[in-house]
Amino acid sequence: MKTFLLYATIGLATIVGQTTILRLSLFQGIFYDLLIPMVVFVRLNLPVRTAAILVLIIGFVMDLFSGSQFGLYLSVYFWIFIVVKGVSNYF
Prior knowledge:
mainly alpha
């Protein structure tokens, strides 16, 4: 439970930083989704159920904060979650 809360807090802080600080005019045009490495890390290092719940929550919160089509980040992070395990089993 402590691990889940730690990663959830890190994810929330990353979402807030990504949607506020990186959207400043200083960084306009330079944008990278900082949560993709976190999704990959969580998938490879946490149990499947815990990682899946965390990825779905992070995707949902990112959809709420970003202002894009609802479900976009949720589905992208979930597919990255699925593909990472398949690729890691292959290599």
